[in-house]
Amino acid sequence: MNGNLFSLIQMSGFFHITPGLVFMWSIGLLLIFLAIKKGYEPLLLLPIGFGIIVANLPLAGLMEPGEGLIWRFYHYGIQWEVIPPLIFLGLGALTDFGPLLSYPSLIFLGAGAQVGVYITFFAAYWMGFDLKEAATIGIIGGADGPTTIFLSSKLAPHLLGSCAVAAYSYMALVPIIQPPIMKLLTSRDERRIKMKKKTKLVGNEKLIFPIVAMFLIILLIPASAPLISMFMLGNLFRESKVVERLTKASKDELMNIVTIFLGLSIGATMNAENFLRKEVIFIFVFGLVAFMISTASGILLAKVMNLFLKDKINPLLGAAGVSAVPMAARVVHKMGQAEDKKNYLLMYAMGPNVAGVIGTVIAAGVFLTFLK
Amino acid sequence: MNDAVTIFLAGIGGVFTGIAMLYLAILFIIKCSSWRHFTKDSK
Prior knowledge:
Number of helices of chain A: 20
Strand content of chain A: under 5%
Largest interface: A-B, 43 and 29 residues
Radius of gyration of chain B: 19 Å
Structural class of chain A: mainly alpha
Shape of chain B: rod-shaped
Order of helices and strands of chain A: HHHHHHHHHHHHHHHHHHHH
Largest sheet of chain A: none
Number of strands of chain A: 0
Helix content of chain A: over 70%
Distance between the termini of chain A: 57 Å
Order of helices and strands of chain B: H
Shape of chain A: globular
Structural class of chain B: mainly alpha
Number of strands of chain B: 0
Oligomer: heterodimer
Radius of gyration of chain A: 22 Å
Number of helices of chain B: 1
Mean pLDDT of chain B: 86
């Protein structure tokens, strides 16, 4: 009788709790706390936090290859490249290219902000990460969650959880991380620059753009096809105005459903063995550095452009070149208004913001072309 | 190290080339669109 009782206790999870598991639970609980109480990217951090906890419950086997429930979500959703492109379909349906088309020169700021990705890639490689790991860490600087997940799942799956959490954490912290850099790199006069009137869109520009952009980007970087094709399809749904149901399904129902599976799967990849390593600290530090350099490089490019442009652009807009949509654009607008209440930068900032999404996908495509 | 330098340069070059192509495409689309709008108005 006593023997049976003892083996029952041995078969329970309580008997297999380790300090590493407890630490992971506390990480999961911290993310849930930040999502609920602080409102930091709750749509992602809440399921990620929950995923971390359940995947680190001993003997539950939710991430058991071939058997575990969450392993199936992860395998068929992320490893099979299904979820990130579906998120991009929804993002495309949510994106308005109008501000970009109205002020085309601002598109270059979306490229400028990718410089941080490559500088960090180089720095991470120099610090001892291999090329694939360094690329995965560098892409955090693009501040684009789905692209980070897409690239990480292909190049360095063991870093997926930490890179995704770093990317979404820094996206949530945009209003804290970006303003000091913006202030440091711009003068008061520069922050007060008012943008000249935009080109008025008169025809089918918004309808034609996603088709043309899809052709050009995929022909240039074929590896970017899964993300760009779905992004532009979602946008075509939106701009065609003839498939309202599909547009709504892409940006609401489908997006919400895949977000649940995405968050849960990512959280579940973070087990004590993968996460409790000194490399993870480096990933968070490098991710932050990447994000800061991306912000700075966008602003500096805007200043360089001002040397050649007749109508000067507000260099704050360069900070919106990272893809944290629309948070980065809002921060730019707020910074502009802090200097001059009549300076409305939001609509202008949305241009480089969506260009940043495209820029980050191209950057990821280049990494895949060389490293896959 | 050579591989890293190649990827670094190709990456920055690729991103700026892609964005420059989109820029030219946007200018072309706007030009065509406004020309069509103008000709439609003049009829």
